[in-house]
Structure to design on (874 residues):
């Protein structure tokens, strides 16, 4: 220890180094005295001092260089020896302290082996006693929770505190016990208490040495009790018990870790086992549930935040409860959609299907022609009406029926046509008695001109639809087979005013056209409630066929009913859907008016719930076609009924939307979109069902291979088979569509199929480049097979068919079978009289060239044809 210098002795003068002196000068220099010269002097002084110091060092070393070298080598050697010594000390320490690093001879000695055995046994015995003591100190099960602060050593009077026991465990053993303890607490003290009602009894026992144990006993309560707040109270009691009597015994680090590890599972358990499962499904139970939810928020703050010390600010229970209105409405919406899904995916019960009646306004759909309007006369003139480009009368109505002007017609002939038949080519061919038209058993033969009685029957077209059945029933109607349309259309409209029919003179056929009377189509009678279908709309893109003079008629003036009722079949699931929509809107309104839920920034009460209504419509549109895909694919009837379902739901939805007020108005836009979507879907399925059958008809007619080479019997048989298959297919589809569709849509669909069939036949035959005499007869026979389809458009045998109203190409097709067997003179006459206006000029020219040899007569006829259809002046 250094001897202290007495304070009275003089001190050595302070010898500061040059840098200190210079720095002192700098600090003592004032701002006024500080300049560049002073700074330069200070730098120069420092550089000079450094140079002098380096020189003195160099001189000192140079003066005794050998001694300097010796001392330098010695210093390096000492440094190396120190490093080696440090390494050896570390190795020696490791060898002494590590029991696995004993010398090899010692390792093989019996003493070392015995020491190892005793050490291992002692360690195992100590660990086992610690585990036993721990297990006697802490007991957690579904029936009780016990914590003993002190534990007596077995077979000894010594006792050890639980704190010492936990501190004596190795870190790995303690971590294992904490993991097991956490699992037991969550399983027996959290999940068990939250899942079922229980009763809790708490007891503390003690002896002369202090508290012996702290105990909580759990008793299952009767299963009928569902007090959720009581479960939260029980959980609070148990967690308080653990926090007071168990957690304090653990070391500080492990205690904090165990407490925080319980926080998240505890929140999750309260949410998943209490709040979510017991979220009510009815508005009446919601107020009580809100009180319980507030208690859950308090429990989170009391247990998780304060007891367990979770200060992360997560508060997931509070965040969930703050949005409880959204959770309630989401749950109700999910339940409603599940209910809707069950309705749509379950097989439909045929017994629940029902008919929906709709009223059609005839004045809007097919207005009558005014009585003062005149009809075109035989010479093509009109009075107070319109004349089209071909001299034929055009009705004022925009509807297809009036535009065609085929309703309630009787044939008119000019008196000039009487006498010697048609007055030309009398000697060309002998007269032949006309034969009955093939396939005309379903209605009047098209080659027979109407008589006066037939005219009256044609005027009373309402009877063809069965609307006047109660006024003049017939025996045939009494014996008719039950029809799906019998009851819905059994209305009793006002009696029509009596009409007077003018006598009609039947024309005499020309001698050169023996078979032409066969081609005169029967007078069409259009059902009053019929409307242009989509199929007609497609066909009307081209000019509609105009009647020839042989089909021009006088319009009878009679009163017609202004409204009729028709019906269609709808599935029973549509009632369930509409009732579901009404229930959803009503429930949403009740939720808003109750005021139980408070508005939030994100959503007003009731809006989320009422969104289930348009979403149920989306499920209807999406699931029904998928769940019933096989049935819709195989049955011609089911797609039409699904189209009816969409149509009915859309019409009912219009009524629902029109009455939306107050909170319900929030869904108006979505429901209106649903109305439009259902209309599109109804039309799409209706059109797709027709298109599917049209494709099948085209595929069947592919077997005819364009009707070529029909002179060969084998080819003729193939064509005849294809035509018959088409006829049979249409007849098979007819009863299935008729059973579900309304009359107007049924005839629209049927007309589209027939139009597809005859248009294909027309196109294939008119495309033939050369037709021999044998082929012309056989092709005519093939065409007449499809004439049987006219009977599908007859409802009253006393009335003519209304096929022309729904099959735009029917007249053209009817003339084709006759033109195939007609002479050039016959064709010329029909052309001049305007009977062939349905044909394009190039079609007629091509047909004449295919049927007849190249002669001057054919050339002159073609020249006349190329001049265009005759135009009759007014």
């Amino acid at each position: 220890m250094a001897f202290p210098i007495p304070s009275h002795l003089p001190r050595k003068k302070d010898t500061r180094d040059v840098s200190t002196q210079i720095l002192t000068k700098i600090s003592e220099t004032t701002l006024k005295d500080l300049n560049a010269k002073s700074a330069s002097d200070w730098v120069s002084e420092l550089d000079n001092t450094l140079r002098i110091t380096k020189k003195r060092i160099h001189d000192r070393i140079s003066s005794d260089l050998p001694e300097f070298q010796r001392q330098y080598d010695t210093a390096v050697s000492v440094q190396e020896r120190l490093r080696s010594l440090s390494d050896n000390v570390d190795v020696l320490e490791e060898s002494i302290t590590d029991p696995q690093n004993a010398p090899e001879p010692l390792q093989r000695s019996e003493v070392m082996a015995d020491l190892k055995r005793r050490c291992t046994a002692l360690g195992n015995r100590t660990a086992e006693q610690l585990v036993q003591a721990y297990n006697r100190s802490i007991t957690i099960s579904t029936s009780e929770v016990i914590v003993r602060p002190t534990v007596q050593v077995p077979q000894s009077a010594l006792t050890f505190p639980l704190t010492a026991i936990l501190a004596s465990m190795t870190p790995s053993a303690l971590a294992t016990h904490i993991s097991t303890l956490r699992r037991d607490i969550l399983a027996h003290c959290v999940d068990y208490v939250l899942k079922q009602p229980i009763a809790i009894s708490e007891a503390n026992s003690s002896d002369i040495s202090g508290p012996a144990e702290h105990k909580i006993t759990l008793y299952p309560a009767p299963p009928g009790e569902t007090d959720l707040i009581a479960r939260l109270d029980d959980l609070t009691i148990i967690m308080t018990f653990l926090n007071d009597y168990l957690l304090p015994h653990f070391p500080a680090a492990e205690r904090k870790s165990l407490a925080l590890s319980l926080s998240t599972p505890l929140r999750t358990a309260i949410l998943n086992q209490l709040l979510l499962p017991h979220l009510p499904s009815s508005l009446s139970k919601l107020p009580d549930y809100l009180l319980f939810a507030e208690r859950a928020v308090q429990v989170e703050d009391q247990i998780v935040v304060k007891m367990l010390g979770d200060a992360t600010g997560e508060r997931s229970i509070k965040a969930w409860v703050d949005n409880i209105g959204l959770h309630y409405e989401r749950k109700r919406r999910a339940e409603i959609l599940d209910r809707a899904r069950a309705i749509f995916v379950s097989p439909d019960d045929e017994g629940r299907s029902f008919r929906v009646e709709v009223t059609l306004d005839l004045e809007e759909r097919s207005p009558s022609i005014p009585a003062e309007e005149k009809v075109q006369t035989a010479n093509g003139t009109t009075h107070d009406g319109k004349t089209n480009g071909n001299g034929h009368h055009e009705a004022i109505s925009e509807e297809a029926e009036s535009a065609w002007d085929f309703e309630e017609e009787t044939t008119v002939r000019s008196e000039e046509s009487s006498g010697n038949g048609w007055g030309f080519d009398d000697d060309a061919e002998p007269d032949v008695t006309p034969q009955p038209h093939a396939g005309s058993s379903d209605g009047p033969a098209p080659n027979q001109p109407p008589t006066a009685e037939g005219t009256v029957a044609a005027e009373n077209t309402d009877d063809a639809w069965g609307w006047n059945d109660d006024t003049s029933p017939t025996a045939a109607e009494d014996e008719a087979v039950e029809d799906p349309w019998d009851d819905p259309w059994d209305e009793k409209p006002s009696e029509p005013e009596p009409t007077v029919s003018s006598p009609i003179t039947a024309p005499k056929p020309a001698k050169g056209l023996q078979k032409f009377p066969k081609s005169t189509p029967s007078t069409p009678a259009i059902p009053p409630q019929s409307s242009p279908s989509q199929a007609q709309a497609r066909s009307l893109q081209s000019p509609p066929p105009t009647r020839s003079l042989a089909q021009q008629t006088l319009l009878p003036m009679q009163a017609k009913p202004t409204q009729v009722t028709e019906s269609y079949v709808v599935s029973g699931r549509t009632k369930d859907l509409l009732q579901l929509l009404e229930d959803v809107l009503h429930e949403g309104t009740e939720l808003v008016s109750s005021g139980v839920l408070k508005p939030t920034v994100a959503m007003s009460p009731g809006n989320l719930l009422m969104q289930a209504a348009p979403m149920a419509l989306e499920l209807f549109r999406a699931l029904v076609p998928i769940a019933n895909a096989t049935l819709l694919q195989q049955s011609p009837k089911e797609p039409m009924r699904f189209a009816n379902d969409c149509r009915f739901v859309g019409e009912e939805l219009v009524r629902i939307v029109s009455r939306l007020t107050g909170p319900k108005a929030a869904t108006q836009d979505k429901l209106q979109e649903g109305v439009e979507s259902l209309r599109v879907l109804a039309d799409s399925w209706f059109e797709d069902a027709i298109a599917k059958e049209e494709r099948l008809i085209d595929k069947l007619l592919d077997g005819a291979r364009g009707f070529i080479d029909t002179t060969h019997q084998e080819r003729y048989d193939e064509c005849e088979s294809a035509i018959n298959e088409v006829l049979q297919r249409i007849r098979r589809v007819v009863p299935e569509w008729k059973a579900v569709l309304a009359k107007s849509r049924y005839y629209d669909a049927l007309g589209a199929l027939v139009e597809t069939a005859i248009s294909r036949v027309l196109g294939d035959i008119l495309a033939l480049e050369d037709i021999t005499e044998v082929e012309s007869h056989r092709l005519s026979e093939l065409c007449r097979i499809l004439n049987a389809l006219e009977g599908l458009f007859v409802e009253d045998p006393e009335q003519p068919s209304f096929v022309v109203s729904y099959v735009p190409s029917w007249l053209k097709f009817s003339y084709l079978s006759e033109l195939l067997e007609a002479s050039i003179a016959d064709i010329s006459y029909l052309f001049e009289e305007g009977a062939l206006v349905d044909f394009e000029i190039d079609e007629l020219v091509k047909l004449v060239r295919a049927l007849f040899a190249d002669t001057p007569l054919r050339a002159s006829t073609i020249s006349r044809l190329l001049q265009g259809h005759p135009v009759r002046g007014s």
Q: What stands out?
A: Confidence is low (pLDDT under 50) at residues 364-484, 486-558. Strands lie at 138-140, 144-147, 150-152, 159-161, 198-207, 210-220, 354-361, 386-387, 393-394, 563-570. The radius of gyration is 54 Å.
